[in-house]
Amino acid sequence: MPGLLGAVVNGAAESVIVRDPSGRVLLWNKASEALYGFSREAMLGRHLHDRLNAHHPTTITGLEQHLLEQGHWEGELKRTTASGEERRVEVRWTVLRGPEGHPAAIIEYGRDTTRLSVIELESRLQAHRYRNLFQAMAAAFWEIDFSEVSRMLAQLIHGGVKDVRGYFEAHPEFIDATLAAARVVDVNDKSVALFGDGRREDIIGGSLEPYWPPESRHVYAESLLAALDRLPHLSRETRLTTLGGRKIDALFTVCWPSGHHGRGTVLIGIIDLSDRVAAEQEVRASELRFRQLFQAMSTALFQINTTRQRALLAELEARGVEDLAAYFDSHPGFLLTCMDAMTIDDVNEAAVHLMGARDRSELVGQPVTRFWPPSSHPVIRRSLLSSYRKQTSFEEETVHYRLDGSELNTLFTLNDSPELRARGMVLVGLTDITEREAAQKALRQVQSEFAHASRLSMLGELTASIAHEVNQPLAAIAAHGAAATRWLSRPEPDLDELRAINANMVSDARRAADIIARLRAMASNKASERQRLSPNLVIEEAVRFLHHELMAHEVELRLELADGLPDIEADRVQLQQIIVNLALNAMQEMKRACCPRPRLKLRTLAGDGELRFELEDSGPGIPPQHHDRLFQSFFTTKAAGLGLGLSICRNIIEAHGGRIWAENIPSGGARFVFTLPIAG
């Protein structure tokens, strides 16, 4: 190579080789001739790796790919000289790029390491380990030439500045100057990706100034003070800037390793905290939104601290307790212990108003026990069982105490999501349902009055049947009485015959009394009384009311009552009212349609957790235009009807937790079906 540059390259002690991107040699200096034994003429234009038989644990192709991606590579290769000797060579490759950024050439600096001393090998091994660690770390690492900054600080001290911190605050331009004086010696790949947008050469040799925005330079100033105080390291969270101008939140750490003192360098580690900071900001924003929503809600909300209560339950779990309900039963005081362990952490304004407090301070810190009357303890017990089963929500109507001790009907809602559970809290909502309860009570009263009126109306329709039912035992009593009189008029009455007549009279009197009792029950307006009942027995009792009507209308009744049915829990009178009402309606419809063979079928059968009652008739069926309105109040097809019978039937069934519907039978007639839950 002619000229000064050629003389410099040929005079270098290291092997210097320049090759094009395809691997063909463009420059081969004197040190390369000495190292490999090939003359310049023998190497120019030849493929470098093929000529020197280069190999590496990683393939040469892989090294070349890494070189093109990163712009540099350094390591050790094995190559073969002209004499056939294999040598270890330490090389450093750097990509030289053209104006458009495309690779133009690759320059290599090489050194023979075959005959290094043991000390040199150990030193190189340590350096190699450092380089591997430097590059492998997930954090961004920078090696900074700090020598000029050290000189500037020493000059400041020698100039008589005592209060260095005060000087820094008064002269921010000095901090700017030290940033410009600090030069980047080396960075790892993470630094290139984070700060240099993938271009290592844009960082190496530059200053630190572009990376420190004005609002963060006080942190850099702290690192200078730490250097003067000879601290081993300093870590601070701050904001830095990439070469592209993007701001990142970072953990900045600077240290002064002992091995770097002689080189005048310091090490800087930077961990990108942008995702964490963004997440923290989102959490804070989410908490702010939660607090705002918490306070704005019209529902009374209580944030309950459950840390101690969960510790109690966790202890039970650790002891192998799986059935918490059984544990509550065998340890009656444990429920109160759990309640005392739950305290109110926060409330919203709606809760303050609902509980009759002056402000939140009267509620915060209180155990929940104070607000639960003993009658409501089963509800909180069920909520704890729900939580123990890891269920995330619970809701039930109950009663709470206000601060003044008055009772309040509430809808108690509990949110026990995993997020809340992890923070040792649950969110409780209380909705005042006092007015709703009063309205429902009034509605139930009205429904009861309507049901009573409906029963009286129904009894009016059954007047002939009732008279017939009562007349039979009364006529029998009269006949038995006349017979007894005749026997008594004899000179020697037959006492055995008189005893038999008397027994029959007592039986008929009891039969009449039973009929009157059923009528009184049907006509009474007492509160609903639920009890365990046999479904088939209820139907048989109801049919007795219909006996005369069935005979008068010549209706054939067929009972298909399943054996072994479980009991139901219901009001006997109301259930009989439904059966009689449905049967009377069916008989009236069949009479109006002039059915030649009127038939009724009553059936019972068991379902999934419920019993099913069916009544079928042989009438004309339900007109399509009436089907959706059958159970509406005041809808009737009778000239003198009020349209309340089926509506009342529906209300009674739904109040018992069942369902009722009607359908047409394909072969003709209508079917009314209702279900009731099996008694627990």
UniProtKB/TrEMBL annotation:
InterPro entries xref list: HATPase_C_sf (IPR036890), HATPase_dom (IPR003594), His_kinase_dom (IPR005467), HisK_dim/P_dom (IPR003661), HisK_dim/P_sf (IPR036097), PAS (IPR000014), PAS-like_dom_sf (IPR035965), PAS_4 (IPR013656)
Top-level taxonomic group: Bacteria
Top EC class, one word: transferase
Catalytic activity field: ATP + protein L-histidine = ADP + protein N-phospho-L-histidine
One annotated GO molecular function: ATP binding
Residue span, Histidine kinase domain: 465-680
Keyword Nucleotide-binding: yes
Keywords for the protein's UniProt record, in alphabetical order: ATP-binding, Kinase, Nucleotide-binding, Phosphoprotein, Transferase, Two-component regulatory system
Residue ranges constituting the PAS domain according to the UniProt record: 8-71
Enzyme Commission designation: 2.7.13.3
One Pfam family from the record: PAS_4
CDD domains cross-referenced by the UniProt entry: PAS
NCBIfam families documented for this protein: sensory_box (TIGR00229)
Name of the protein: histidine kinase
